[in-house]
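Table S4 entry, Nudix hydrolase domain-containing protein.
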Amino acid sequence: MRRRTWKGESFEECGARELKEETDLDIEKIEFLTVTNKVFKESPKPAHYVTIFLRAALSDPLQDLPNLEPDKCSGLGWYDWDNLPKPLFWPLEEMVQSGFNPFPSQTD
């Protein structure tokens, strides 16, 4: 989700709102994990990403995962952290390559 927080909105509130808008999923137990600040000056399309990483639980684990934007997204799915589909969003790829694990209880 590439959006901005609303004035006075926390990262957690923004994440819950954006997820609801784009997937209709409700979440709880939202936790801030980390933030990255990356400038891609040498890229064919230079960009600057400030990426907020959050972790949350589904309010109802039986919620469907609908694709509300089929014109922008071919599909959604749940994946194991060590088996993510490629290509990944740049900041997420860098986090994976750095060894970051948002699920430390699921280590080998």
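The chain has one domain: 11-100.
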